[in-house]
Amino acid sequence: MVNLSRKENHDSHHTLPPENVESAVIVKDLIDTTNGTSSSFKIIAITLGVMSVLGIIALIIKWINHGDDSTRWGYIAALVSFLLSITGGAPMVAMGPVMAKANWVRPLTRLAAIFSFAGISTIIVLIPLLFLLPPLIVDGTRRRSIWFEAPNYSPHIWGIIGMVLLLITGIALFYSAALPDFAAMRENSTGWRQKLGKKLSRGWVGTDSQWRTLRMRIGMFGTFYFFVMVMVNFLYTTDFAQGVVPGWRDAIFTLYHTVSSWQGGVAALVIALWIVRKKMNLEKYIHLDAFWSLGRLLFALTLLWIYLFYSSFIVFWYGRSENDKATLDLLVKGPMIWAFFAGATFIWLVPWWILIWNRVRKSINGMAIGASVIIFGLLLDRIRLFVAAWSVPQEHIHQKWLKQIPDTIYPDVYDIVIAIGSISLSILIIMLMTKIIPVLSIWQIQEFNLLSKPIKYIRGNATLIAKPD
Fold it and tell me: N or C: which end of the chain has fewer CB within 10 A?
């Protein structure tokens, strides 16, 4: 089966797949990206490593000095949410479009899956919050939560289990699709990379049975990853946000957090793809078509953000109960009003105005700028939600609604160092993974090359795409 993809009237030479690129050339080009490290790569990696260590040290010092005051940990809770959104949302691109048989996604599935490894940073920062999260029974009374008649340790144990399970599932999704590339490393690399490829390829030779099993595993782990990610977002938002604020009841909040996580994950992937394309000289494998398709997806998620926010906001606005008014005072009109307006501007208004133009969505640099704005807006939005939630003293947890709105809390030096260090650790992990395995999937690039052919269509250009199944 063959069908025609979109037509282009300008800049079409950037959108077309390479013609007649031999398989051996693809293997060599991509495996060469793992060999050797430039001086700039070493400098960046060392700098990120130093900042990561400083961030961990700052986390320990903050725990020693403020381990008994939960109101000082709001920015750390927001940081965990931000990291979860980025490292958990990006791998969704490695399974959603793939299961829909989208051809444009083949060059970027590997990079999307690598983001899963950065979940290690999220788990590290989460650990102190588990000890600060109040138990289910406070002062002999069970507090409001989703854990009806559950053991006292339920929020804490299930929170960390969910994060670890998301990390494991993401790595399983990565490994399921990486077997052919490990076999390619076994045959074409040298030194420790060749030994690693031989060990991890598990005798892969590319039989029909092995290919069927590989596709089945990608579908299985991709579906499982989707469910685990939704579960983790549900656990974190309810236990570490709504559960610590008396009277905050919002049935849409988990969906809002999950969808905005996808938005942040796609935006982070756009930026990473832009860097890889520019710094690794992979322009002939990463085309404008990938950025354009991600741009449409990102634009849709940006519109979905404002829809979900309004769907949640309107319930509180028209409800006008004491619970509703207190929730709005805390999250929107009160101490976090600056974060609300700034976050809404950068996560919705500015990206909407940027991505609405076809010229921007067809521009690689324009997409990188729009994605960077969204990442910044996502961080502000997470600060609005979790700093406000954790600013409520735990002695107020049994109130029917929040009767006293806390003052605005600003980050201290420890918060800033921890944020820089944890984000640096996430970036460092992703960078190191690109030196272990090719950042683009070799077999999917080869498949992309075999299934796509540039053709003339009427007065413009088009891409002829074969559908093998």
Answer: C
Asked if 55 contacts 425 with a C-beta cutoff of 8 angstroms, the reply is: yes
Q: What are the structure tokens assigned to 207, written together?
A: 């039989």
Mean pLDDT of the chain: 89
Residue 10 has pLDDT above 90, yes or no: no
Span 372-400, pLDDT tens digits? 999 999 999 999 999 999 999 988 888 88
Q: Which spans in 133-252 are helix H?
A: 154-188, 191-201, 208-240
Chain-centre distance for alpha carbon 290: 17
Residue 430: the pLDDT is: 96
Q: Poorest-confidence range of 139-143, 411-415, 437-441?
A: 139-143
Under 8 Å between Cβ of 421 and 60 = no
* Phi–psi pair at 111, nearest 5 degrees: -60, -40
Sequence-distant (6+) residues with CB within 8 A of 37 are 45, 435
Tokens 């600013």 map to which residue? 391
What is the Cα–Cα distance from 164 to 7, expressed in whole angstroms? Answer: 44
What number is the average pLDDT over the span 25-43?
88
- Residues 156-192 pLDDT 10s: 999 999 999 999 999 999 999 999 999 999 999 888 9
Q: Is 453 helix (H, G, I), strand (E, B) or coil?
A: strand
Question: What is the helix (H) or strand (E) element at residue 462, kind and residue range?
Answer: strand 460-466
Is the predicted pLDDT of residue 4 greater than 60, yes or no? no
Q: Quick one: angle between helices 364-390 and 288-319, nearest 10?
A: 30
- As a three-state string, the secondary structure of 437-449 is CCCCCHHHHHHHH
The terminus-to-terminus CA distance of the chain in angstroms comes to: 8
Burial per residue of 223-260, b for 16 or more beta-carbon CB atoms within 10 angstroms, e otherwise = eebbebbebbbbbbbbbbbbbbbbbbbbeebbbbbbbb
Distance CA 244, CA 293 (A): 39
Rounded Cα–Cα distance for residues 330 and 389 (Å): 8
Name the strand (E) or helix (H) holding 141: strand 141-142
| Dihedral angle, C-alpha 330, 336, 342, 345, nearest 10 ° | 0
Residue type, 217: R
Measured from the Cβ of residue 117, the count of other Cβ atoms closer than 10 Å reads 20
Q: How confident is the model at residue 21 (pLDDT cuts 50, 70, 90)?
A: low
Q: If residue 352 lies in a helix (H) or strand (E), which one and from where to where?
A: helix 350-355
Query: Which SS3 state, helix, strand or coil, does residue 378 take?
Result: helix
